[in-house]
User: What shape does this take?
Amino acid sequence: MDVSRGLKDKIIVITGGCGDIGGATASKLAKLGAKVILFDILPPDAGHARMKELSSASYKKVDQSSTPQLRQGIADVCQEFGRIDVVIGNAGVGPGGNLLDLKDSDWEEVLRVNLIGCTQLAQAAVRNMVAQEPDSGNIRGKVMFTSSWVGDFPSPGAIPYCVSKAGLNHFVRLVAQEFAGRRILVNAVAPGILNAGLTKKAAFQRDARLRQKYLDYIPLGEFGTAEQVADAFVFLASAESNYMTGQILTVDGGCTITKRE
Assistant: This one.
């Protein structure tokens, strides 16, 4: 398998592109010849510094919770680069909460970024993809998202986050079904428990005792890395995955098959 196949000069947008998973994915894709555009909420100076660090082609300050910003960002990419081959909705927020403690604002924040933001990113990208010529592999475009193992396996104390990822998984299947005939592929990567990203920030840095608890969930006996998740995105972005659509590719060290007590 050659994961570099079909990636040279591809125009790829990654939201949350300056974070752990987004950055690792951007770096790997850039090394394989893709032109990667980072969308994130960092101030321009910090975003451009991260862009150079990751060898990306451009940085744009775009908040995934804002439909107007997403639409303008995608329009700017298409105008600057001529087309858009891959878009990865990776930005996410994950405040926890049990049912009786949750307020409307807790639900609204998580769903606005993790679910509605992804739907609007997809809409903006697909509108451009359907109008462009297919590539040499007869693919007009690819839409991907960062989901999570908790989209199918509930994690106590994180109800809004789990619900947002479950909704995202079904959105992937529905949009894949709708646009397969137009040669637009839609998939997601579902990371397990990482020592990176939201888990590291929201859990491990807050309560060190959670490290061992979560480690006990994983048959492979180690936390995942952002780079391992990035490998899955590289595969999906490459021509090696051109017969895949509507799939949730789980990268979790087996934690979804572990009995939890």
Remarks:
- Strands lie at 11-15, 35-40, 58-61, 86-89, 141-146, 184-191, 248-251.
- The first strand starts at residue 11 and ends at 15.
